[in-house]
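Example record used in the benchmark description.
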Amino acid sequence: MKKTLTLLYAILFSGILQAQTELKKVYDEQINPLEQIDQAVAKAKTENKFVICQVGGNWCPWCLRFADFIEKDTTISKVIDENFVYIHVNYNPRKQAGEEQIRQAAALMQRLNNPARFGFPVFVVLNQEGRPIHIQDSSFLEEGNGYSQEKVLRFFQSWTPRVCSM
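Model output (structure tokens):
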């Protein structure tokens, strides 16, 4: 019985790891996240859009699932393309990342109003001046082992520049 349970756990764990490694890594771990945000804000201002920062990392399976989900869902990706500059903001506060990255991670959290308190991924909507206007806890967008199209669409549609200017 014990061997059977161990085997089942091993199969389940290997399946989870395989599914995670099949997802495309979307976070650029080399870019300065503060500069990345500045560039996105400048672009959003010229395009009359807001910025969505999906904060997390390639270490986060739910972050990669969300990126895959919105890429494959054409209804959601259309709403994003029309209203937002969407960026994947890498967050890595671990000591092995080095002192500079630890400082950047702290500055990033301060700039985005400490969204890490909600877990990862977390979404921060920035207006055209680069100020956070909303932080979205991703757990409210989940459904089963993935995300709900209805909930995700409601989130994005509730924070478009047009809706926010009413």
